[in-house]
Design brief:
The complex is a heterodimer of chains A (394) and B (163). Chain A is mostly helical and 394 residues long. Chain A folds into two domains: 199 residues, no CATH class; 172 residues, no CATH class. Helix content of chain A is 66%, strand content 0%. Chain A is built from 16 helices and no strands. In chain A, helix 2 runs antiparallel to helix 3, helix 7 packs antiparallel against helix 11 and helix 12 packs antiparallel against helix 16. Helices cover 39% and strands 22% of the residues of chain B. Chain B has a four-stranded antiparallel β-sheet with strand order 2-1-3-4. In chain B, helix 3 packs across helix 4. In chain B, 25% of the residues are buried. Classes of the chains: A mainly alpha (394), B alpha+beta (163). The interface between A and B is large, with 88 and 68 residues.
Amino acid sequence: MSTLLARFDQWWTRPLPNAAGRYGLYRMVFALSYLWHVSEFDLRALFGAPSGPEPFLPFLQLLPASPSMGFLQGVDVLLVLSLFLLAAGIRVPLSTALVLVVGLIREALLSEYGVENGNLMPIVFIPLLALVAPGWGHTYSLDAWSAQRRGEAPVSPANDSWRYALTVRSVLILLAVLFPMAGWFKVTGDGTWLRYDDLLPMLLLRRSVDSVVMGWWANPLGPWLSAHASIGYWLQIGVVAFELSFVLLLAGTTARRMLFAALLVFHAVSALWVMVSFGGMLAAYALFVDWESLWQRVRGLAVADILRRPFVALGPHRCLAVVCIVAAVVTGTWHAGTRHAFTLGGLINWRTIWFVVTPVGLGAILVSLWRDLERRRFTSRESGRAVIADRVHQ
Amino acid sequence: MNRTARRAGDVVRLRAVQLLLLLLTGVWLWLGGSERYWPIVGWPMYDALTAARPDESVARVYVRVWMGDGSRRTLRQADLVEYSRAPLAGASVNAAMDQHNPRRRAAGQAHLASLVMRALGTAAIDSIALSQTVWAVRLGQVPPVDLARPLSSVPIAAFAVPR
């Protein structure tokens, strides 16, 4: 038992390359992706809304029964402001806590109109973990820059300490628990996934009809699915097996990369043909990207230097003032139209985002898998040569 | 902070994270697929899904809007709010058509008018009419619905929008 616990701790406390830098940069990616999510829906649309189809959640008893326009506007504005502060790294623990609390209130207000569409991973789990395992403000933040000016030792972005890897490892565990749980519920719940052999084809056909009526694209496989509906049994088994297989996320890097590659395809197909959006999950998947190594590749470029130079010239205090002014302008004009900038005027929505993320993500994963394979081949070739040289020497 | 104290703090954080994950997993398993204690919910993810073959026809409510300048615009429910929040537009349209409860109907119409103004980006709206359009569904074809050829389009309700 003690050996098992020691191995468990070993897994948690392994170093992670560039841990501090990638966690700091991820904070910005997280805040920007959350701003995109907030920009998609104007919360003021809830003012005076009739009751929704979902049951009233006990959590909502903590909030006003019929929120006023000012309350709804305040929630949106406070969340946007907190996300801006978080992206810039200003008072990071406080802005993280605000993002958690205000984001939760916003999502709770919307739960009456589709609780299953909630995005709990970015809204609850990631900010909560960032509070319990802080450190995403230690690099690439105005907080860190100010501390450095005060004489505190800076944290190197290349720092590989496990303390900066707690959130990414926690999210890995959450995914390895939540996905199999979804598969488990499908088997043990109402059992419709195993009872009906045409469940998924019928869902795909219905969604294809819905999609066309909404002015979107039809599923080109519709006629084939209609004629071969019994294929659904194997599709359903496949989905359940796929979800259960996510325990393998903990099996190692190669298994993880392959699962993420399959996951990107799964989400793209879901968005395209099942009309189910997993856009909120992108914030969780982004944790597994080494943003620091990407930044190191682009920071030498002239464009990156031009972008960085004015900030360096200003210094942390003036930068803080500039960020506060920009944040005030953006939050003040958020509902007047600034929010549309985050969706590029509606171009990036819950569906189209997958057309960008899936090919880019798949490409990156395949390249890293190929490099791993090449590295292994090289290592085995070199060790083979060493053995031969050793024998010749003997 | 010296190195020993920082390490002790890191270990405390590690244990706190582990405890949090353990608690979450335990509560998820205990709750099953229930959403009662939201936001502490597992991932039922359509576990009780039921889907029958689509009917031979499909009906949708269109929102036709008469603008202040005399022009007319037609909106689908999907145009009113972001897709994942479509039940909000659905609830509004259903309430606006309520024949039995005048108070609910009035509230629904007021809310629908606000959604339309938000979607069109203008408050210059004279009146709104709701109509139900029906199309034939042909599953053997792509697309399965010919939007240009509805089977019928029936007016359901109309109301003036107070300025």
